[in-house]
């Protein structure tokens, strides 16, 4: 019997680390492992490394794999000194303390519409607190002693790949297009770093990882297996879900993401649509919200139920929740750029003061925020024929059944899976097997949900959304 070629995909997300071992030719899952990450928006990378070791052990090790790729949460600021030691805990994508730095960077390039346009022309995105360069600006201004020690900056998946390779020199740091495109100092249009913008943000030059091609080799495991270039989590999820042209992928995880593969980079000076790159050499226009599945988690705590009960409650209430609207800005928000906003409830009456209406409002509020992102993609040229819904939030029956009415499109829900890790594994298979494209893996048939749109729900959400007041600074 011919021995199969195995590959490993790793997803180092905000909440946990997942490792999948798959057959490179067919994609068949052979084994897997998982370990949790600590909570918070500031985490020392050593915690990711420890979780990765645990997840690898649970997955039976990597000694028999032919290639590995690491996908990870985007934008996190990992700063290293000249010896490769971590200078301070990483600031993650959902840490909003650099909101002021983001505003300052826009001012540095002209301010207002002119400043936003300048950033889009330079790197395809407009500064918000999520992006790496804003965190570097915050570090330079707030922790000058730590900033003085910084010799290099990289991203979470870059650092883990580097650690797996056993390398120590800063000149051996490697990354990929998709993750580099979310830093504010690399342009997906030109495929080049913008050291002038990096110096503008941090105040002086520092080293950055080499950006590899889609099948570039970032290093090797001790057994000689190559390490692929890796990916940002959303780009990996697109590869793992096997999205077709016209498929808009909406992922409901810690954050909410709405993205579609494109041959054309978006041009959105408002900053709503970010012009990221994908894992194949194309572009990945994307809209990101800070609040997604955690909105459901908060509703579960508030109502004292579990997720299955929350879904049943939501489906027992009328569409539109009788006018009750929940604005889901529980951790501030990135889209729209409201880092100091809070969640809000509108339309509370005696008639809507019950668990069912509250559950429905939570689901609809979260989905309406994502529907706003879908609208923005379409306005900027994306083709949207159907939605592919993935992530932990997609496991909710209420989410699946309510989503088509708010998105206005058929919704396909693939079987639950680790799509980010699967995308990394598919990239590893591409590195191992070669060829002009990633191997085609046969997927299980998705569930399909369809429903007529309900404009009134979107309208009442928009009215409540625009009435939200931000917290004062400080």
Automatic annotation (TrEMBL):
It comes from Mangrovihabitans endophyticus. Keywords: ATP-binding, Carbohydrate metabolism, Kinase, Nucleotide-binding, Transferase, Xylose metabolism. CDD domains: ASKHA_NBD_FGGY_BaXK-like (cd07809). Signal peptide: none annotated. Catalyzes the phosphorylation of D-xylulose to D-xylulose 5-phosphate. One of its GO terms (biological process) is xylulose catabolic process. Substrate binds at residues 74-75. This is Xylulose kinase. Residues 249-430 form the Carbohydrate kinase FGGY C-terminal domain. PANTHER family: SUGAR KINASE (PTHR43095), XYLULOSE KINASE (PTHR43095:SF5). The gene is xylB.
């Amino acid at each position: 019997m011919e021995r199969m070629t195995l590959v490993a995909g790793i997803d180092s997300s905000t909440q946990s680390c997942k490792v999948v071992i798959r057959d490179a030719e067919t994609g068949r899952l052979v084994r897997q492992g998982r370990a949790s990450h600590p909570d918070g928006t500031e985490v020392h990378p050593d915690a990711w490394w420890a979780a990765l070791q645990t997840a690898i052990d649970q997955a039976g090790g990597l000694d028999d794999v032919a290639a590995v790729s690491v996908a990870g949460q985007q934008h996190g600021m990992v700063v290293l000194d000249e010896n490769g030691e971590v200078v301070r805990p990483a600031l993650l994508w959902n840490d909003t303390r650099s909101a002021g730095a983001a505003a300052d960077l826009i001012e540095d390039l002209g301010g207002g519409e002119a400043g936003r346009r300048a950033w889009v022309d330079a790197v395809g995105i407009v500064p918000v607190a999520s992006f790496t360069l804003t965190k570097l600006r915050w570090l330079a201004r707030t922790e000058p002693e730590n900033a003085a020690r910084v010799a290099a900056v990289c991203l979470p998946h870059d650092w883990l790949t580097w650690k797996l390779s056993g390398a120590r020199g800063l000149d051996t740091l490697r990354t990929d297009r998709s993750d580099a495109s979310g830093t504010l100092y690399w342009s997906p249009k030109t495929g080049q770093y913008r050291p002038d913008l990096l110096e503008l943000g941090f105040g002086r030059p520092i080293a950055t990882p080499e950006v590899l091609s889609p099948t570039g080799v970032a290093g090797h495991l001790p057994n000689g297996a190559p390490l692929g270039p890796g990916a940002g989590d959303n780009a990996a999820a697109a590869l793992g879900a096997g999205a077709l042209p016209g498929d808009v992928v909406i992922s409901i995880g810690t954050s909410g993401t709405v993205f579609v593969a494109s041959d054309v980079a978006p041009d959105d000076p408002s900053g709503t649509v970010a012009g990221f790159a994908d894992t194949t050499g194309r572009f990945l226009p994307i809209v990101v919200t800070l609040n997604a599945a955690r909105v459901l988690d908060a509703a579960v705590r508030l109502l004292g139920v579990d997720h299955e009960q929350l879904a049943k409650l939501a489906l027992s209430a009328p569409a539109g929740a009788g006018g009750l609207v929940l604005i889901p800005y529980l951790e501030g928000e990135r889209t729209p750029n409201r880092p100091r906003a809070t969640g809000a409830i509108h339309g509370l009456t005696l008639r809507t003061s019950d668990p069912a209406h509250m559950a429905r409002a939570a689901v609809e509020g979260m989905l309406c925020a994502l529907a706003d992102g879908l609208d923005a993609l379409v306005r900027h040229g994306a083709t949207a024929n159907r939605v592919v819904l993935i992530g932990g939030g997609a496991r909710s029956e209420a989410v699946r059944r309510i989503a088509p009415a708010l998105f206005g499109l058929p919704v396909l829900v693939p079987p639950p899976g680790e799509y980010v890790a699967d995308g990394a594994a598919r990239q590893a298979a591409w590195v191992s097997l070669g060829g002009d494209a990633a191997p085609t893996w046969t997927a299980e048939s998705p569930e399909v949900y369809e429903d007529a749109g309900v404009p009134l729900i979107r309208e009442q959400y928009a009215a409540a959304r625009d009435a939200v007041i931000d917290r004062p600074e400080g």
